[in-house]
Specification:
The protein is built from 7 helices and 10 strands. It is α+β, with helices and mostly antiparallel strands. Helix 3 packs antiparallel against helix 7 and helix 5 packs across helix 7.
C-alpha cells in the first residue's frame, strides 16, 4: 500500500463511481478488516461489493469459459469484422454486442471447488504491472505469488476468505453468488435497471442522479468473474440507456497489446471535469476485456486481461 501511495501521490482522490468496479478485486488481496455494511434488497441478496477506498487501479472483467477452458485473446483482429465503427453510435454498438453475446450457449457453471485463474496487465503513472492469481469459485480461498512478475515469485500463498459465510456482516460476495444473481437478470435494459433498483445493493450516493447510481451498480456487475450471456446482454442494454456515451470510431490497443472496441462514458458527477471510463470489448466475441481511465481526452491508466480460465487447482495455468 505504501508503494501504491507513492506511485500515485499526485493523483486526485478517486470518487465512488471510479472506485466501485475495483472494490471486489481489492478485497481478495486485503480482506483484513471489517467493511461497512450494505443495505440489501428484500428478495435475494444482490451480489455487489461496495466500499470506498482511495485506490486508483482500474479493473474490469471478461466472460469466463468453464470446465478448465481458456478465454485468451491471442490474435484479435485490427478491425471489427462486419462492423463500421465510423458509422455507428454507442447505443447501436452496445445493442450489437448484446445480440452477439446472448447468442452464445448457456455458460456451464464451475464447480464450487474449482478456481478462477486470471492474468492481467495494469498501467498507471508510467508503470506497468502484471498480476496473476487464483480465486476459488465459492469464494473460500485466494491464491497468489508474493512477488508477481519477478524471476523468483516465491512460493504460492493461499489465503482463507470464506466470502459466502460472511453474510450481511460484510458486503462482499463470491464469484458463485455474483454469477447466480446475474443469471436472474432479464436480457432487456429497462428490466435490468428495474431489477437493480429493486435490489438496491449499493446505498445510493445522494450526490449522484438516479442514472449515476445505476451506472455505478452496472459497473460493479461488469466486474463479475463469471457472466452468463443473458445477464451480460442485459447489462449492455442497460448501459445503452446511459447518457453521454461515445463510441471510439476505431479499434484501440489495450494494455495487453490487443485490439478492442472502446465505448466511453463520463464518470457520474464528474462530467464537467472531463473524466471518463472507457470500456474495452473484444471485437469478435464482444465480451469486456479491459477498461481505461480518461482525463481531458487522454488515457491515464487502465487494465486488460491476458488470460481468464477455470482450472481445477490453485497454481495451475491453462
Amino acid at each position: 500500500m505504501t508503494q501504491v501511495r507513492e506511485l500515485r501521490a499526485d493523483a486526485p482522490v478517486a470518487d465512488r463511481a471510479r472506485l466501485a468496479p475495483g472494490r471486489a478485486r481489492l478485497v481478495e488481496t486485503a480482506l483484513t478488516a471489517r467493511r461497512s455494511r450494505v443495505t440489501w434488497g428484500r428478495r435475494s441478496p444482490l451480489l455487489i461489493a461496495a466500499v470506498f477506498v482511495a485506490v486508483t487501479a482500474v479493473v474490469i472483467t471478461a466472460t469466463l469459459l468453464a470446465d478448465g477452458h481458456r478465454a485468451g485473446r491471442e490474435g484479435t483482429p485490427a478491425t471489427a469484422p462486419g462492423l463500421d465503427l465510423k458509422g455507428m453510435n454507442a447505443r447501436e454498438l452496445l445493442e450489437f454486442a448484446a445480440r452477439t453475446v446472448e447468442k452464445q450457449p448457456p455458460l456451464a457453471e464451475p464447480r464450487a471447488d474449482q478456481w478462477i485463474y486470471t492474468k492481467e496487465t495494469q498501467e498507471g503513472a508510467g508503470a506497468d504491472f502484471e498480476l496473476e492469481k487464483w480465486l476459488r469459485y465459492d469464494g473460500a480461498e485466494l491464491a497468489s505469488y508474493p512477488r508477481p512478475g519477478a524471476d523468483d515469485p516465491g512460493e504460492l500463498e493461499t489465503t482463507e476468505l470464506n466470502l459466502e459465510r460472511l453474510g450481511d456482516e460484510y458486503d462482499d460476495r463470491s464469484p458463485r453468488e455474483m454469477y447466480r444473481f446475474l443469471a436472474t437478470l432479464p436480457a432487456d435494459g429497462e428490466g435490468t435497471l428495474e431489477a437493480l433498483r429493486e435490489e438496491n445493493a449499493l446505498v445510493d450516493d445522494k450526490s449522484l442522479t438516479q442514472e449515476g447510481n445505476d451506472y455505478t451498480e452496472i459497473s460493479v456487475l461488469l466486474d463479475a468473474y463469471v457472466q452468463p450471456p443473458k445477464g451480460l446482454a442485459g447489462l449492455y442494454r442497460a448501459l445503452a440507456t446511459m447518457k453521454g456515451a461515445e463510441l471510439v470510431d476505431h479499434l484501440v490497443e489495450d494494455e495487453a497489446g490487443q485490439y478492442a472496441v472502446a465505448v466511453r462514458f463520463p464518470e457520474p458527477g464528474r462530467e464537467g471535469e472531463k473524466h471518463a471510463d472507457e470500456w474495452l470489448l473484444d471485437p469478435v466475441t464482444f465480451e469486456i476485456v479491459g477498461e481505461r481511465a480518461i482525463e481531458d481526452g487522454e488515457v491515464v491508466g487502465g487494465n486488460a486481461y491476458v488470460v481468464k480460465a477455470v482450472v481445477n487447482e490453485a497454481g495451475r495455468r491453462p
